[in-house]
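G., the chain you wanted modeled:
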Amino acid sequence: MTLTKNDLRDALYVKTDLTKKQATGVVENLIELIKCTLEQGEKVLISGFGKFDVIEKNPRRGRNPASGNDLMLDGRRVVTFRCSDVLRRKLNKGKRK
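Predicted structure as tokens:
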């Protein structure tokens, strides 16, 4: 199952005294805040969950798989996520090392 914005809104609605409209606003504003922070190249750290980080990738040589021709791929920014130790332990609870 995939967790969607609507799922987040519904869970927030059920667990709080917020209306669905207010819960939608909270979810939308939170996601917008995270996006704006990442666009500025800053990290987003959510304690007990993990850290989102923006990594700068350098331009690199690539190959078109269809034609086999070499080409240069532009540099780009990508978002990475590292889960917290707390979340990692919960995910691996009961599993051997």
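The mean pLDDT is 94.

Shout if anything looks off.
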